[in-house]
């Protein structure tokens, strides 16, 4: 049985190409399970998983919870906004309290970059990073690559452009790592103010003209503008942003070839993409959601198999 080279999923930058291939093969198997009439497998009956969300999340949290329940794990949900964290309890104390309840695995989203790495060094449980600040979001990048592989046959050699707020996006960074690892060509496109200064050091192409970027790519991954992470204004107005970096059906239809549209959600309809694009057959946004459960099942299952009884 192949196994992952890591004991935690802290970020894509800690994985190798074989890890990604193993996660995808395992997800293929779980995708069949999800489509059966009985969607559960007893794989993790003796594993307890705590979901710690120190930041709001709807889709990621639901996706992880569903993945855990499909694998028959015992699940504890902890929402920090309603907890002792508000009373000043530290991250380590919170987690140690949860671990004293004999938890094997922690899925954590936290506003501070590196929180999951810090945690993995201090507690004795397998940690999955469900997003840390504007740093990484590894399961999102894995499900994005998996969705590209499903739609286009493989990721290697494909041209993928990530459009929008690259500066504040953990999805962008994890995607760049994952796509480069699998041999895709990666471009980022957005207002200059929303593209990090030294991003070309990661081996990506920088383009500020949306039409050029779309004509170049096979896949466009459209990110939303993360207003909640902005203390200052990075562009004149939402209307102007949409005019320059929003994708509508007329623009899509005028391109030289049919491209695939992705979005990690939640979509700001009418800002980065219009409804007729989001709901068109070129968009694989709902496939990404379904694949998210299969990928998270695969990650949890593979990490759980490394936990010593």
Q: Give the spatial strand order of the biggest sheet.
A: 7-6-5-8-9
Shape: globular
Estimated helix fraction = 25-40%
Overall tally of structural domains: 2
Residue-averaged pLDDT, rounded?
A: 91
CATH third-level topology of the largest domain: Rossmann fold
Strand content: 5-15%
Look at the helices and sheets and give the structural class: alpha/beta
CA-atom Rg in angstroms: 19 Å
Task: Give the H and E element order.
Answer: HEHEHEHEHEHEEHEHHEHH
Low-confidence stretches: none
CATH superfamily heading of the largest domain: Aspartate/ornithine carbamoyltransferase
Mind describing the biggest β-sheet? Answer: 5 strands, parallel
Name of the CATH class of the largest domain? Alpha Beta
Distance, first to last CA: 17 Å
Number of strands: 9
- Architecture of the largest domain, according to CATH? 3-Layer(aba) Sandwich
Our count of helices gives 11
InterPro entries: Asp/Orn_carbamoyltranf_P-bd (IPR006132), Asp/Orn_carbamoylTrfase (IPR006130), Asp/Orn_carbamoylTrfase_sf (IPR036901), Asp_carbamoyltransf (IPR002082), Asp_carbamoyltransf_Asp/Orn-bd (IPR006131)
Protein name: Aspartate carbamoyltransferase
Family: Belongs to the aspartate/ornithine carbamoyltransferase superfamily. ATCase family.
Enzyme class: transferase
């Amino acid at each position: 049985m192949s196994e992952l080279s890591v004991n935690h999923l802290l970020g894509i930058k800690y994985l190798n190409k074989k890890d990604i291939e193993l996660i995808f093969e395992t997800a293929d198997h779980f995708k069949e399970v999800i489509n059966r009439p009985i969607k559960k497998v007893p794989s993790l009956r003796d594993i307890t998983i705590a979901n710690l969300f120190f930041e709001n999340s709807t889709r990621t949290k639901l996706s992880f919870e569903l993945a855990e329940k499909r694998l028959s794990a015992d699940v504890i949900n902890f929402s920090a906004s309603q907890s002792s964290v508000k009373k000043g309890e530290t991250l380590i104390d919170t987690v140690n309290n949860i671990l004293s309840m004999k938890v094997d695995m922690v899925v954590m989203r936290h506003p501070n970059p590196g929180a999951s790495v810090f945690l993995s060094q201090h507690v004795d449980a397998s940690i999955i990073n469900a997003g840390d600040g504007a740093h990484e979001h590894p399961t999102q990048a894995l499900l994005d690559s998996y969705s590209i592989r499903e739609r286009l046959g493989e990721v290697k050699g494909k041209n993928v452009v990530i459009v929008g707020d690259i500066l504040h996006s953990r999805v962008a960074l994890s995607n760049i790592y994952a796509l480069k690892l699998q041999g895709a060509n990666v471009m980022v496109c957005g207002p200059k103010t929303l593209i990090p200064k030294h991003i070309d050091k990661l081996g990506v192409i920088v383009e500020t003209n949306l039409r050029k970027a779309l004509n170049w790519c096979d896949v466009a991954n459209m990110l939303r503008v993360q207003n909640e992470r902005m203390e200052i204004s990075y562009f004149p107005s939402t209307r102007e942003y949409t005019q320059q970096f929003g994708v509508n059906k007329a623009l899509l239809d005028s391109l030289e070839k049919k491209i695939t549209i992705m979005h990690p959600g939640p979509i700001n309809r009418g800002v980065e993409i219009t409804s007729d694009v989001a709901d068109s057959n070129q968009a694989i946004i709902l496939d990404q959601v379904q694949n998210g459960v299969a990928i998270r099942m695969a990650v949890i299952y593979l990490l759980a198999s490394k936990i010593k009884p």
